[in-house]
Design brief:
Number of helices: 14
Oligomer: single chain
Radius of gyration: 48 Å
Order of helices and strands: EEHEHEHEHEHEEHHHHEEEHHHEHEEHEE
Structural class: alpha/beta
Number of strands: 16
Distance between the termini: 117 Å
Helix content: 40-55%
Strand content: 15-25%
Largest sheet: 6 strands, mixed
Strand order of the largest sheet: 1-3-2-4-5-6
Length: about 525
């Protein structure tokens, strides 16, 4: 019989039951030399609710060709044919390594032959005189074939995912790991990537064999911090993000590492963390160096400020004592000479009065320069100095400046008093230059361990980009002064709605009984 191919739409001489709309279309390769038997099988399949595309062959060559042009959902084969047999058809199918169910349908197959066929790889056999078994057998084998294919796809995807994961893990500049904590307290590393040896100095096998190896790598001073972070992550099921040091085995080399992982609870109650261990040695050393440099710069800035204030105080004293004293002496001598001039010498009297006025202006200028260098009112306390500066600002600028202060008494370090006063001066200077304000409110309050200076104006505000622009030395100076005293500056400003500058500086207290009077500032 020549190979025959039929589609579901092709007419069938035998009556068939209507096909359900949800009927499955299957491709069937029928190995049969009788056309009547082929049509009978197709009719039976349609009666079972399938739409059938089929091809009938009865030689090895025709079957091999048909298999190559597949795919096929199932092969139904007669057992005995003149030039071909069911076992040969089964061998032809297996030779092409195709996972296609193979059912033998025969009119005279014995039990021993059926057993032999099943051992050879046939999935089932059906007697032609009992074709009612064909549909259940076909249903079962198609389901099992679907299950096998799904399992193969899942296994393939799993292998692909594993290969992809290992490729990613091997190229990450860190160690990918899984860490497990069981309910009985036992710990283990189910997985550690190969980069472990380069980062930790031990191979993955060492951690897989004994989780305690990792704890031994931790720098002794950092072990407690790691255990605490792990306990918090386990208790709250939050991400673990821990930085610390490790010491490589048999070496003095210290590395900084960062562990980042997420926990999840398994069905058996165990906790499994999955994440990455990063080598952050270079960035951590750079951070430490930056912090050290910043501290040194702060110390230098504080020293420069102190030297500058000391120099200002020295110059102010010299101006006040020497120049001011000399000007006073000049004025006294000038008065002595004026009193001895002849009343008739009007020109001499006018000249003397002109010189006296010049001396008075010079004395006023000298006093102003001396106050600018270091207001002597600071010796009366910080509040008195702040009040004086606020009044001077209000008198000079014509802008109301209201001050609210604390009623508590507190002895402050003189350097702290000067720094707060200078910060206040710089704030008022910025307001006078740029704010276009109509009112300024000032608050100076001392808590138990901090002094808070707050200055609020109703001016045009400061744009965010102006706070960091080059040449913005006013705000930067305020921030540097506060930072040198371990303080903090908070600036809130919106264009058109004013500016609020809040400075918080930790208190440096001194014993009022032992502190020199010149270094006491009474709140």
């Amino acid at each position: 019989m020549a190979p025959t191919t039929r589609s579901p739409e092709m007419a069938d001489p035998r009556p068939s039951s209507p096909t359900a709309p949800e009927a499955r279309t299957i491709r069937v390769l029928i190995v049969e030399d009788s056309e009547d038997d082929v049509l009978l099988l197709v009719w039976e399949l349609k009666r079972g609710g399938y739409q059938v595309n089929y091809e009938a062959v009865d030689t090895r060559a025709a079957m091999a060709t048909a298999l190559r042009t597949g795919p096929w959902d199932i092969v139904i084969s007669d057992y005995s044919m003149p030039d071909f047999s069911g076992l040969e058809a089964l061998a032809t199918l297996r030779a092409q390594a195709l996972d296609v169910p193979f059912i033998i349908v025969s009119g005279n197959i014995g039990e021993d032959v059926a057993v032999e066929a099943m051992k050879a790889g046939a999935h089932d056999y059906v007697m032609k005189k009992n074709l009612s078994r064909l549909i259940p057998a076909l249903d079962r084998e198609l389901r099992e074939a679907d299950v096998r294919r799904a399992r193969l796809r899942a296994e393939h995807e799993l292998r692909e995912n594993e290969a992809r994961f290992r490729a990613i893990a091997s190229n990450i500049p860190g160690t990918v790991y899984q860490f497990m904590l069981r309910e009985d307290g036992t710990k283990s590393f189910p997985y550690v990537s190969g980069d472990c040896l380069r980062l930790l100095g031990v191979g993955p096998h060492a951690l897989l064999a004994n989780a305690a190896v990792f704890r031994e790598l931790l720098y002794p001073g950092d072990r407690e911090g790691y255990e605490s972070a792990l306990a918090r992550s386990a208790k709250n099921l939050t991400d673990l993000n821990w930085e610390g040091r490790i010491q490589l085995p048999g070496s003095d080399e210290i590395k900084w590492i960062n562990l980042r992982s997420s926990p999840r609870r398994l069905d058996d109650g165990a906790l499994l963390w999955e994440g990455v261990i990063w080598n952050i040695t270079q960035s951590k050393l750079a951070e430490i160096e930056i912090r050290r440099s910043r501290e040194q710069l702060q110390e230098l800035s504080a020293h420069v400020q102190k030297v500058k204030e000391d120099e200002r105080a020295r110059i102010a004293r010299e101006i006040h004592d020497d120049i001011g004293g000399n000007l006073t002496a000049i004025k006294i001598d000038l008065l002595w000479l004026t009193n001895r001039l002849s009343p008739e010498s009007k020109a001499m009297h006018e000249k003397a009065h002109a010189i006296e006025r010049l001396v008075d202006r010079t004395m006023e200028t000298t006093q102003r320069i001396s106050r600018d260098l270091r207001p002597g009112i600071l010796d009366l306390g910080l509040i008195a100095a702040i009040e004086w500066q606020a009044e001077e600002f209000q008198r000079r600028m014509g802008i109301p400046c209201e001050l609210v202060t604390s009623d508590d008494e507190l002895y402050l370090d003189q350097d702290l008093c000067v720094a707060i006063f200078r910060i206040f001066q710089e704030t008022l200077t910025n307001i006078s230059k740029y704010a276009e304000a109509t009112r300024v409110d000032v608050s100076l309050v001392a808590g138990e361990d901090v002094v808070v200076l707050e200055v609020v104006d109703d001016g045009r505000g400061i744009a965010r980009d102006q706070l960091s622009k080059p040449g913005s030395f006013g705000i930067r100076g305020i921030q540097e002064r506060a930072r040198s005293l371990h303080g903090d500056v908070e600036i809130e400003s919106m264009p058109g709605s004013g500016t609020r500058i809040k400075v918080e500086i930790p208190l440096v207290t001194s014993d009022p009984e032992t502190a020199p009077l010149t270094q006491k500032a009474l709140f």
